[in-house]
Amino acid sequence: MLFLILSITNAFGQETKPLTYEQKVKDFEYLFEVLSENYGYFGVNRRLNGIDWLSNKNHYIDKIKNAPDDTTYLFTLKSILADLNNDHVSFSPTLYYNGYLSAYKNLSKDYPKYKEWVEVLEKPNRHKYWSDILEKRKEFVDENTKTLNNPKPNYYDSIIDHKKIAIMSISSFNMFKVDKEKVLISNFLYEIKDCKYLIIDIQENGGGSTKYWQDNIVSQIIKEPIVNTTYPIIKDGEINRRFYHHFFERAKLLNPGDEFSNLSPELLSDNYYYQVWRDTIFPKNPIGYDGEIYLLVSKKVFSSSEGFAQFCKTTNWATVVGEQTGGDGVGSDPAIVILPESGIFISYPSLIGLNHSGSLNAEEKTVPDIEITGNSSEERLKKLINYLSIKK
After folding, report:
1. Of 40, 42, 99, 200, which has the most beta carbons under 10 Å away?
2. 242 shares its domain with 189
3. Within 13 A of 47's CA, how many CA atoms are on the CB side?
4. Which residues pair with 354 in a beta bridge?
5. Is residue 108 part of a domain?
């Protein structure tokens, strides 16, 4: 392919040839060091998936050495990171570089802590070169997996069973859809005041913005302020301290004698710091809904949608039904590192979360109050509707 053969001029300000295998190895060794010192989920991966990622270092280096070109290197690195089994470890800042930089620049105007993200993203890099490679592979996959079915809208709603059951289905808490879909949700909520049951179906929701569910859903229904208590923790590493130095200033070292009953062993063998966050959600023009609320979840629920499941479970604001979730929903923005030889950006979860028992949210996830099984999201939704239809 032409883009593999030609040298390129990039953001380093000079003509750069494809990476040598020494450069690829140096890249990986830097990333390995960063993750080993700052990443907090190695124990979870061992217990859930049987992968001791840190012990595989030499195996991974051999794979890197055998990558003959930049494209193979990039996707070899991608497969190595896939062994961590955590979607928050990703190339997203490379693939969506302009969106990330713009978002963090805007955030840093009101929240100075985000200047750390801007500073890293503005370092000399080769995001365009690497994102083009990722996009070409993505286009190839999309072209070969197209279907004739029209995709579902991100948000849609309905009222069924003689206006007894209202249903909201939300496929993503996309930060760019918060304002637009708030209008749709507001209009629907005013229609359902007399419905006995409200189902919020987030089975296909892999996350997005916490603001979506707090502002668009909870604040428009609650009559009184409600407190969402979470327990973020962070490993004591150099990169973590750079991105979350304010967190460390107010945090406490996690000790065996603390209030948690179910701490994982690695949280006590390494130095982890924690805080107790109490986030108050206030009513905003609430509709006065008095019916029962059910949050329908599946194993696809992850990140901020998992945070919504945790909120519903721990506050009893809604009954959580369906499958055990995908977890990893308590925390904040992943840290971003730039690999020194390639200029690739990679994100990893820096601030991670405990459940109220002390178990890692990414491991225990959220266990539903009522388990509903099924081969598809449609089947589970149908079972919940049948359950509510006959409920007195």
Report:
1. 40
2. yes
3. 12
4. 231, 360
5. yes
